[in-house]
Design brief:
The complex is a heterodimer of chains A (about 450) and B (about 300). By secondary structure, chain A is mainly alpha-helical. Chain A has helices spanning about 5-10, 20-30, 60-65, 70-85, 105-115, 130-145, 155-170, 175-190, 205-210, 220-230, 255-265, 280-290, 315-325, 325-335, 345-355, 360-370, 370-380, 410-415, and strands at about 95-100, 120-125, 150, 195-200, 265-270, 390, 395-400. Chain B is of the alpha/beta class. Helix content of chain B is about 30%, strand content about 25%. An 8-stranded parallel beta barrel of chain B has the order 1-4-5-6-7-10-11-12, surrounded by 7 helices. The radius of gyration of chain B is 19 Å and the shape is globular. The chains are: A mainly alpha (about 450), B alpha/beta (about 300).
Chain lengths: ~450, ~300
Amino acid sequence: MISIKELKFQKEIGKGIYRGALIKDSLSKKAKINYCSRCLYPSNHPLGIIFDSKGVCSGCRIHEEKDILNWDSRFEKLRGILKNYKSASRGQYDCVIPVSGARDSYFIVHVIKNVFGLRPLLVTYNKQYNTEKGIRNLSYLRTVFDCDLLTLTVNPETVKKITKVSLQKMGSMYWHCLAGQSVFPVQIAVRFKIPLIVWGAHQGIDQVGMFSHTDQVEMTRKYRKEHDLMGFEAEDMGSSMMHLSSSDLAQFAYPHDKEIEKVGVRGIYLNNFIRWDSKAQHEKMIELYDYESGEQSRTFDTYNDVDCFHYSDVHDYIKFLKYGYGKAMDHACREIRLSRMSRSEGIAHVMKYASLEPKSLQLFLDWIGISKKGFYFFINQFRDPLVWTRDSNGEWILRKCIFDFEGDSSSLVEDARLPLVEDKCEFKLTGSRTVISDKPKYTVLGRGFVNPEDRTK
Amino acid sequence: MLGTRLIACLVVKNGIAVQSIGFSKYLPVCRVEIAVEYLSRWGIDEIVIVDIDASRAGRSFDLEMAQAAAGAGFVPLTLGGGIKSVAEIRMLLKQGADKICLNNSARLNPGLISEAAKVFGSQCIVVSIDATFVDGEYKVYDYSLGREIETNVLDFAKECEKLGAGEIFLNSVANDGLKQGFDLDLINLVCKAVSIPVIVIGGAGHPSHFLDVLKQAKASGVAAGNYFHFFEHSVIATKNYLRKNLAVKDLVDPNIKGKESIIRPNSYVDYKGISFDEMGRPAKKDEDFLESQRFEFHPEEII
């Protein structure tokens, strides 16, 4: 049982939702962590995960639907939904598509615009941590699909303040990105009276099997608050210390329920209707539209997050420091489930990337203006005690992790194993349209005229 | 005549709300307090939280979870799972529960029903019955054994009523999580057998499933575990579906005068006048209406 004193302490930190629950779970369940006997996911997955009697996780079980469901008829279901949203008379946009310079953006626009013939309005939240490649992918996305693109750039000084608060409250450098990406499309839908938003994959379904594909789950503010925002709405981020007022946070605030209702805004996820295979989809986009891939410092997937300096780097390292695993684990699990990677290959990938120090930390620290020590001070408070402990010298050590299961050939693991359908799991590296400067600097977006020499300042 | 309640049931496993499918497969959904917060906002009439690990782990309902859940919403809250004594019930009521729900204890120690009803009143004591159809009759299912027991569901429901239970929470094991509709035969049999309110759950996947219950049975409440998590404002939309599709002449209960009285009122957000697509989700609004909304101002609700 947890003591009253500890409970009080948790309540003081961030309303006791996110961190409080985390600590409580870890302490009360006799500190035991499990790993799925098919993919590699641990029981402390932040989205929540359930293991069945065979030791297989809910994510793997839902993933089995990808080979069972009739995807042709599901595709027709999508056609049925989209048909209703095709504007007959208004000369308006049919739907909103949130895009970035990477991660499924090309595929979603490809499906909606070129396969179904809708007229989408593309929207993007400027996450500030932009790479040149990401901005170029984004510009070409707008060009090759001949769409309109709306960009929201929040004043970087405000974003820095918000990020300082989010580091302190939840150990996250990505709150503003997730909040912005998940709310800007909804604000635009409400403001322009465009009743449909089309998203790619629902992460809860794809990673942990939160819903069956047949549940046809739609966008909810509930999911956004818990998982994208880690329990903190914009209203919870105000800080007198940081001089952050509600007007600073207005761009991150969700439209109220009446506004959503009046326009009838719905958000649908394409992975409920299309057998989702991120790798194959990106390869198709490279072939059709010259999407640029790029090497990532902390994972083997070269397709997904090429638009950001930190997503597969500092942000991912933070995830490792909190939960004991990072992106390489997510990507390995995905490939294992798609029968392209063996369990041992997956573990080898995870071991290779898990504890690699991030390359772009200094870039982030310079931008936000805190020291390395300060950064680790914030993050260390959020290490999950289920996986992390301190040795007698005060050094953080992993108590148990997937490495301990290397070469595990117990009957559970053998029973859960999927036969490989492809011998190799290789991610392509495309060329780049232009020479990329080797100095790591955020690529500025939304600044109007910029001197060519100052292009990346 | 009280309106028929729409009730959300949060099944809790490993400390989080899960989807339950056939009493055997579970999918992680969200933290309990977040579900309570949003279901309340979406116009749910009542929430039932059942911790399915508690009895098996030999502990009572987690008090901190009770407290967090009670603080997150503003609708009546029923808690169940692992409750074995009057003292435990008292603790849960102190944390903010309005009713408690007995399942294992009602079977193993029926005396607790009458004891608790005497102390707290019948309105506070709900007995949860899981039913399964075996050899031509509905039998009580014991989830801790994973199979049915010899007791007949109707006999057991009558027995609970006699002991002082204020409500029956009736689940169908076979229909749980299948999204194919409720077991209407079961519901009708139990509703006719007892005179206390019966809340039914198991099988909701489309608003028409709720409609079937309202048309064909006299249940006091219709509940769903998984369904309300699937889309934004799910409860309000479902209520509107029922209003739109329910005719007074359809109802089996002759005491009902108007259909407004059978569905409880909505919140400020009301989805009035919407139509529905084949999944039962709110369909796209008329384009002229959307056009008319361009310069409309809709104030936020202030409570």
